Amino acid sequence: MNSTTTVLLWLLLLLNVQKFISAQSFKCTETGKCIHKNEKPDNNTLYECQNACRLTCGRYGALWPKPTGSTIIKNSVVHLNPHKIRFELRTTNANGQEYLNAIDEIFLKNIASECEKRDCVTESENEIVIQYAVNVFEDTLTWDTDESYSLAISTLDQTTTVEISSHTLFGARHALETLSQLITVTNGPSTNFENVLIIVSSAQIKDRPVYAHRGLLIDTARHFIPVADIERALDGMGASKLNVFHWHATDSHSFPLEIPRVPQMTIFGAYSHEEIYTVSDVRHIIEYAKYRGVRVIIEIDAPSHAGNGWQWGPSYDLGNLTVCVNQQPWRSFCIQPPCGQLNPINLNVYDVLRDIYRDLLTSLPHETMHMGGDEVHMGCWNSTKEIVDYMYNNGLGQTTDDFLKLWSDFQSKSLEIWDEESRATSVTSTQKPVILWSSELTDPANIEKYLNKERYIIQTWVPLTSPIPKKLLTKGYKLIMSTKDAWYFDHGFWGNTRYYTWKMAYKNRIPRDRNVLGGEACVWSELIDNNSIDERTWPRAAAVAERLWSDPDTDISLAEQRFYRHRERLVDRGIRAEAVAPRYCVLNEGECT
Ligand SMILES: *[C@@H]1O[C@H](CO)[C@@H](O)[C@H](O)[C@H]1NC(C)=O
Ligand SMILES: *[C@@H]1O[C@H](CO)[C@@H](O)[C@H](O)[C@H]1NC(C)=O
Ligand SMILES: *[C@@H]1O[C@H](CO)[C@@H](O)[C@H](O)[C@H]1NC(C)=O
Ligand SMILES: *[C@@H]1O[C@H](CO)[C@@H](O)[C@H](O)[C@H]1NC(C)=O
């Protein structure tokens, strides 16, 4: 044998090995699971790769979150050429046009992300026509926005028609996200072992969310989280149909949010001049979020969780705006160091708050804000002579009730200023509610004394077994729920907290009540920065997303295979979502349940 023959023989052998390795296939069982088979695929019962099997296997295929209305996904696919996708829309509305153009781009990018690492061939002659029918072109998302949509796919000859109909632009966006999940890459004998995009050739889906508020909180004060990382979180939210980015922007640790009217806030409060969200950053984030179906609610926590950023009062002759800042021993003055609480008796504090609110309302378009209101430490105010003297002069003592009165006065004044600034900057005069964390002030026994239920939405952060949410509902308050022992994703890494798996996050049901607006997963950033934010957040936030979108009462084992697929989708889209099962269990659906 000469060397050329040897090389040829080796090549032949390699090619055969290649075919042999690729002769694996997947079978969709009657219970909707894709089972790994070492058999040569045939064109009816066996799929060449898992993603192709998952695309149409089971009632909900690869969709996450699962639709809440009728869902039919036919077991047939056609090849898709991303260069042969045409979007058709009948509107001359500029808002609508701009929004739809933006979501079309995102859609194309998302399907390209499936191909990026895989080098797809895109030679199909099939044409895809996506037709929109949208009623209203309002592009501000609120608790009243109709997010429902219907999606119909049909294929005739070499044309696949996708009809998207929705009341709002946000419904259309969700439909397009669903459509992207009806597309995947396949590879096997039928494609000559090349990567090819396929799309389900026939489907009908009607869908709408159960809860209007489906949130993710990110804390950018314990650690500054760069804009690019926030963008990735918003990408994941769009992919999972979460719709509220609760931005815990400031805390006692740092104040990274640029306030043009009060530049001192970041000069004194940012970790460095690079760790600041400029007005244009914030605008960009709000815009970026909008095109992912997400609205941004900014929280300026007060009167507690305020310290660094507020220390400049004395040097500007405004007195102490905050008290107990960075004070030690911290346990006597706060729950977590560094300490700091606004000084509610210094009227200059309210002028600064007014400037902050005005900047939020004008330079950063907002319809509501989160006013914080958690963990006021009475020991801090109680140890401040100026405050105790004031209370004494105003007929108050030093009991818990007296401090609650002081706190609620602070809260009333803050709301009044917010209302005044809202009126001054907005065309509508209707008073919108603001959000507050649950606290001693929202204790069901006292809340009616302090907080008007028409004006305050309470975000509860108590354990599942706590009776507080139910009691607040009985009293007629609206709630957003962040079940502490399921949706606090910072847990499991400090103290005696435990890590909540995606299944625990998924199983956490919140009441179906007109006054429960929804819930939020919380990513507190004491132990999280841009090196680990993706892993801590994803894919668990997606488990919360299906809970809030679909609120399924079915067994979690029915969600598992779709969840694994969604996690890989997030990874394809550039999010470092952590693994949730050994590769074997992902490939062999149902075997590790
Ligand atoms: C697909 O299956 C049908 C019926 O089982 C068979 O006649 C046909 O040859 C198959 N086509 C391919 C490409 O394998
Ligand atoms: C402001 O705080 C400083 C430091 O805690 C304190 O020494 C000072 O007396 C305070 N000023 C007033 C007006 O209370
Ligand atoms: C405040 O301090 C006084 C005296 O030090 C104490 O008697 C009182 O109980 C304290 N109040 C609270 C709410 O802790
Ligand atoms: C985290 O952010 C810093 C500062 O912006 C940057 O230098 C670093 O590369 C980022 N790390 C990761 C993993 O993104």
Automatic annotation (TrEMBL):
One of its GO terms (cellular component) is plasma membrane. Residues 63-182 form the Beta-hexosaminidase eukaryotic type N-terminal domain. Keywords: Glycoprotein, Glycosidase, Hydrolase, Signal. Residues 211-551 form the Glycoside hydrolase family 20 catalytic domain. The active site is at E375 (proton donor). Residues 1-23 form the signal peptide. It catalyses: Hydrolysis of terminal non-reducing N-acetyl-D-hexosamine residues in N-acetyl-beta-D-hexosaminides. The keyword Glycoprotein applies. Its EC number is 3.2.1.52. GO terms for biological process: carbohydrate metabolic process; glycosaminoglycan metabolic process. Gene3D superfamilies: Chitobiase/beta-hexosaminidase domain 2-like (3.30.379.10), Glycosidases (3.20.20.80). One of its GO terms (molecular function) is beta-N-acetylglucosaminidase activity. This is Beta-hexosaminidase. It comes from Pseudolycoriella hygida.
